[in-house]
Fold this sequence. Notes:
The chain is built from 1 helix and 40 strands. By secondary structure, the chain is mainly beta.
Amino acid sequence: MRARSFFFLLCCALAAASARAEIEVGFAVPDEGRVTLGVFDTSGHLVRVLHSLSAQEDFRTGLNGLITAWDGTNDAGDPLPSGRYHIRGYLIGNEVSVAGEEFLFNDFAGDSGFPDLNHIHGFSLLKNGDVLLLGGTVNGGAVLARFSDAGGFGWSNPKVMASSAQSPAATPTASFPPLLAANESAALLIAPNLCNTFSLENGELVACLHSTIEAPPLAAAGNASSWFVSSVDSVTALPAQGDENTPAEAGISAPPAAFTALDADASILLGATPDGVWIHRETWKSWAGPVGANSLSLGTPGTFWFVGTVGDSSFVGQATFEGEILRAMEPDPGGPKPEQIRASRAADAFLVLEASPGLQRLRAMTRSAGGNWEIDWERTIRDSARFGFADGEPVPDAGEAEPLREIRIHMQENPLNGRRDFLLVRAGFDKSGSGLFSPDGLPLVHVSNRPEIRRVAIHRGTSPDSVIFLQGNGAFVERFSIQGLSDILPIDAGDIELP
């Protein structure tokens, strides 16, 4: 009986707490601006953000300032215990401004339609000069996208690995890097348990192909009629216009090596390993050149481009089918090394993917009439998961445990009390976005609503009341300039006794 009485009294107390009348809170503001106001318990802990950068028009106007109300609950809407609470905050003046300055560490991020790719797995150079990219994304997935230097991303498909597009019998389940190939109308994507084609016009799924490949694929290429896929002991041809009911073609003789690079046109199939290159017209024939290739691509008639290796150094070369190396281009000392190449079949031009630890660079290059190599465009991706500042400058890797820095700002003199206080500002992010916060968690300056922000950092700007703000999501880093922070004044709305 006593337990029932206690339970009844507890329910009554909770009901009374939830039914509390709103308590009016009045405070004075010395100027125009936005208001941030929080409720703090006796230990100084923020228990409720009452207003977050609210316009003064959102408040009632009283004789001595602005009026708001509090219902005695925390941010989750739960009633708070009876007791004394303090309400304070800040007036953020109109001189405070945020300006986006640039994208850092991922040159693709500034292009329209950017699909948050942070790594390039493979690419193809299309006939009109556009690039087909297979990239990794910030959430660990993959995206297939069509890109041009002038127009940005024409389309992107982040669902290329979706289960609805998989053909269970397509490829082995063994793990291997995804492979990409393209002909004039479609792209072939091969990944574990997936062998699909996608439209070059809009990126949509065209077909799920069944394959008779019995070992993990090593390379892929295509022409108008067929897709070619190499494995350790075979080269399989799949009809380019096939679907899941179309069997693989026969007729390609056993390859002389396990090709890790392929390319094809209507009459020629090239296969390569780091030890040698082979040409297939009716049968396989060894190329007479002195090097092998880690990557290769057909070029102008009678030639192909390749990434070759001599010792520890890699280089880009162009060669004839007869074995003559026409030209070679070595990377800059200490710079990224070439890994993949795709060439134009109409001009002495190519696209090369270069890499070094923490960096990938995609460059489009043309040989001028004078014989010089010219960079038509380039895009660089740096691993920026641990970005920060070094000697005042943004860097892509500032170490594992770089703390988010607080910066001390001197505020203007408060007309209400004649005091000139200082304010600590801290970079952070919450469910409403990224920005500057007070050390106790009150929002001061809103920077952006961009989702998936994973890291932020700040550094003092060019003036005493400005900061440089960095935010990143794992694919890129944005840099902002925040000015006029001295135009922030404290607000004190006093104590409230919560019944």
